[in-house]
Design a protein that fits this description.
By secondary structure, the protein is α+β, with helices and mostly antiparallel strands. The N and C termini lie far apart (61 Å). A hairpin with a 4-residue loop joins strand 4 (62-68) and strand 5 (73-80). It has helices spanning 5-13, 23-32, 88-93, 113-122, 124-131, 136-148, 157-166, 227-234, and strands at residues 34-38, 43-45, 53-59, 62-68, 73-80, 85-86, 99-102, 106-112, 169-173, 176-179, 188-196, 211-225, 247-248. It is globular, with a radius of gyration of 19 Å. The strands form 3 sheets. Strands 9, 10, 11, 12 and 13 form a 5-stranded antiparallel sheet that branches. Strands 1-8-3-6 form a 4-stranded antiparallel sheet. A 4-stranded antiparallel sheet has the order 2-7-4-5, covered by helices on one side. The chain has 8 helices and 13 strands.
């Protein structure tokens, strides 16, 4: 299929994830979007490299992979079909974590990262639905590293992390002094990206009373996992929440 700006605009209008954007913004995005084809078996994303674009899967199928550090082998996390957004986890975190391989001949519609991130910033509803979601590749990157340090086998790693991601919530701490009173104390919180009181991605938080912490540089992204979903980790001692250096109010 040959894609023109008009047909690309129609594609964007038909995507549920882009439904909150006005036509003027969709028109702006369609002007910078490009179709890109991948051969079967070709890498669309690599977990070592931060995406420079968002890709929307238009034709064909692909696989989202995680890398099990215990076995040094890839794990298929999800089979991807038309309409999936590829690269979203890395872009909202600012940390690469996605490996996507084409299972068939694939056509993607690519949007430059800066153009896409601008849309997230300028249209809050659009930004909320994508930024306040724990993405599967993100959860695997975080929890997979925790499990790699455990001497026990938690069982089905994929199922454990799929469940943890589906029940997780997201919160952001602004740069500078940030208070933790808005964090749900019934969650197990982990830093996904950013630096909080000298602690960084993959470390657990202990949320105590009304405390304040210093967030270095840009904002910090936190993931709150449901305790039930973390029981396999808690039971094996893999979760060891670190104590933040906090300043009491």
């Amino acid at each position: 299929m040959t894609y023109t700006q008009s047909s690309i605009l129609d594609v964007l209008k038909g995507l549920d994830r882009f439904g909150s954007l006005p036509e003027s913004e969709l028109l702006r995005l369609s002007a910078v979007a490009q179709p890109l084809r991948y051969r079967m078996g070709q890498s669309i994303l690599r977990r070592e490299t931060l995406p420079h674009q968002l890709a929307v899967l238009l034709e064909g199928q692909a696989r989202l992979l995680g890398y099990d550090l215990r076995t040094q082998a890839p794990v298929t996390l999800k089979r991807l079909d038309k309409g999936e957004l590829l690269g979203i986890a890395g872009l909202v975190r600012g940390i690469p974590c996605e490996t996507v391989i084409a299972s068939t001949e694939v056509t993607c519609l690519t949007l430059p990262a800066q153009a896409f991130l601008r849309s997230l910033d300028e249209y809050p509803e659009f930004g909320r639905q994508l930024r306040y979601q724990c993405h599967l590749a993100e959860a695997f990157d975080l929890l997979g590293k925790v499990l790699a340090g455990s001497a026990q086998d938690p069982g089905d790693l994929r199922q454990l992390i799929v469940q943890a991601a589906s029940g997780a919530i997201v919160c952001y701490l602004p740069s500078g002094q940030a208070r933790l009173h808005n964090l749900n104390r019934n969650r197990n919180w982990m830093i996904s990206s950013g630096v909080v009181a000298q602690h960084t991605s993959g470390e657990w938080l202990t949320v105590e009373a009304d405390t304040a912490v210093h967030v270095v540089g840009g904002q910090a992204r936190l993931i709150g996992f449901h305790p039930t979903d973390c029981l396999p980790l808690l039971d094996r001692g893999a979760i060891a929440p670190m104590s933040l250096l906090v300043a009491q109010r």
